Model the fold of this input.
Amino acid sequence: MSCDDTVDCGRRRLLVATAAAGGVAGVAVAVPFVASMLPSERAKAAGAPVEVDISKLGPGQMMTVEWRGKPVWIINRTKEQLDSLPKIDDQLADPKSDKNMQPEYAKNETRSIKPEILVAVGICTHLGCSPTEKFKTGADSGIAPDWPGGFFCPCHGSTFDLAGRVYKSKPAPDNLEIPPHMYLGDAKIVIGEDKKA
Ligand code: FES
Done:
């Protein structure tokens, strides 16, 4: 039977509209459940932890991930790079990281949980530029003949070693920040969280 403008037809239209709205509500309930399993872009920007697979990060390599809108570097340091760290303590502004720029579990010579893996926020502590990696050693680095590898901030010339420690007499006042992080396995790091829920 075709519908015209009678009262019955008006009621039927209302029922159809209500049922359709009910269907939409059902979908709307399901979506947040699925979405809650992955951090949304908004949640990530607000600080949700980020899981990173480092299984393909070879010795001497570096990767960058985003956490809270900041670049976070993960560097797999070689034995030679690790060996260079204690040799330059006297050239650094805060070699022991006494200024509390890192969690307690990274307060050591390598500023890391595992000696070879550095996790650091890649933002210069002077005015917030992003330093560039200078892993080449010596004069080839373009920094200094005895350069052991590290990072160079192109904005005002601050230099950092391979543990993110700032050199003396540079504009940057502090070492690079070490974010809260923890391992979920040999090759998985969570950045932004440092205790198991
Ligand atoms: S912002 Fe890095 S030295 Fe100024």
In short: Strands lie at 50-53, 62-67, 70-76, 117-121, 132-134, 150-152, 159-160, 181-185, 188-191. The chain has two domains: 1-37, 43-191.
